[in-house]
Predict the structure.
Amino acid sequence: MHPPVPVDAPPHLSGGLDLSAGLDLSDPVLHAEQDLTEVWRTLRDRDPVHWQPPRDGRPGFWVVTRHEDVAAVYRDAETFRSDRGNVLDTLLAGGDSAGGSMLAVTDGPRHTRLRTALMKSFSPRALDGVVRSVRTATLALLEEALERGVCDFARDVAARIPLRAICDLLDVPEADRDELLALTSAALGSEHADAGPEEAWLARNDILLYFAELAARRRDSPGDDVISALAGFRPGGEPLTDEEIVLNCYSLILGGDETTRLSMIGGVRALLAHPGQWRLLRAGEVSTRSAVEEVLRWTSPALHAGRTAAADVVLRGRAVAAGDVVTVWNVSANHDERVFDRPDRFDLARTPNRHVSFAYGSHFCLGAYLARVEIGTLLDGLRTLVGTMEETGPGSPVYSNFLSGRARLPLSWSRA
């Protein structure tokens, strides 16, 4: 058993909200509808390794909020394991059945084996053709939306760029891509506050079934794509299993689409909310490179990552027991005043920028280079093509305790 808070911590940590009794950080509605900036700040200051008690039949979990501690958990993959799951929903439900087979939920030698199988396909040299395609497609999407004068930026532009890139890498047929977009959108979140877990489970299952069929075809008739590369990979003479191939395709389509899409949407919202930064971007007074990093820090599209303690360990004075669920909150670490000067200021020229939006350590995001290219290409397109833009409606949030952002972003805009 764990005490709910340290003995010297105040019962009400922020804004009258009692985390030990009333604030459930696993609740998707909380993250979608509430601004938790002050909650995260107060936790960082007063209870940086916070114990969220069990509730509604689910186990409790640790909430790690300071940048230094988040990085330490990411870095120590022996003590803080991923193989039982890496998101709250699966960890609180008993673990991830893909553990040991999918890169994101695998540790040790098996993780090295799977990462080696994928790394060659994600090197800058290997991605050269995909990068050219991303740049062409991004400009075309912006031109088309500007021609209309109004758009849902989330669906008409942001949803199309990362999905196209990852589908090109996997050589997903064009006719299947819209359906995959719908499935990936439903797999980790929802536009509806009352959505149950069944919709997400069905979407994830459909994605797995789709890639099982596609992988079987690639084994029989390989091509120049990531699925074929996985099917042909034989470290030490042993091929990857069908399960490993399918689960890692599933991981790539989700990881390569959702978080980058939400960063793009959140980046445009930030530019709208900070017109001075938009003017600097348009005038070429900030580099695309630093702007991309600030968009990633500011949006923190993956709110958290989950781990399981493999042994008893003390983390910033708190006794974490073997088997405990430990969550690190990127959204809090990326606004830690101990690391970032004026972290609540959106600053496209911010350097250095030590955000953890791509995680850290052995599980650093495999697709980080491609995501940076996609976001940078979008910012360059906005810089050169767009004159004015205005949000024409509130949009709708993503209801998720893992993803952060908007599912819709209605805009009116004009050419430069």
In short: The chain has 16 helices and twelve strands. Residues 3-17 have pLDDT under 50 and may be disordered. The CA atoms of residues 72 and 360 lie 9 Å apart.
